[in-house]
Write a structure and sequence with these properties.
Radius of gyration: 16 Å
Strand content: 15-25%
Shape: globular
Number of strands: 8
Distance between the termini: 39 Å
């Protein structure tokens, strides 16, 4: 497997899919696992580009603070066809679909699952997604799915382990790190 680009859905993959809303139905919060953000930095430090592809624009500021390219799949007509980004990513990164991997968890990810050969999902994904995925991870969404995926890539020799120094350098560049000091 020669993966050059890892495409991540967010809600249900990096989170457990739970959103906390106010009385006006505005999203107030979501819960993320910090180990998954470290795993993303490890993927990048190991030479794999990472992008986030979500139907929820709420996630854009989080991705920006973490220096991760973000794409909102909700089109002007409000459709959620994520597969239309395969060609965009192919052109931007100079790769073909065989060099892409996607992690998704829900029905709206099915279109991109059907266009890529390397697809993964958390263990709590619906049956239709599990049946379409190349591999079902043991982790549930929001419970370390990306660190599990990184470990799988290392154990399978699909990537070389990133150095601690390169991961730390990426961490120092995040706005979230600056905000914690």
């Amino acid at each position: 497997m020669d993966i050059k680009l890892l495409i991540l859905d967010i809600d249900g993959v990096l989170t457990d899919g739970t959103k906390v809303y106010d009385v006006h139905h505005n999203v107030l919060s979501k819960r993320f696992t910090c180990k998954d953000f470290t795993a993303i930095k490890r993927f990048i430090a190991a030479g794999v580009e990472v992008v986030m592809l979500s139907g929820d624009i709420f996630n854009k500021s989080m991705a920006k603070k973490r220096n991760i390219d973000f794409y909102c799949s909700r089109n002007e007509d409000l459709s959620l066809d994520k597969s239309r980004y395969v060609e965009t990513f192919s052109k931007k990164y100079g790769i073909n679909s065989k060099n892409m991997a996607f992690v998704g968890d829900d029905y709206f990810d099915l279109s991109i699952f059907n266009k890529l050969d390397n697809t993964f999902c958390p263990s709590d994904a619906p049956k239709i997604i599990k049946d379409s995925a190349t591999m079902v991870l043991n982790s549930k969404g929001g419970e370390g799915a990306i660190i599990e995926l990184y470990d799988l890539f290392i154990q399978s020799n699909w990537i070389i382990e990133a150095s601690p120094e390169s991961v730390a350098a990426l961490d120092r560049k995040e706005i979230t790190s600056e905000e914690m000091s």
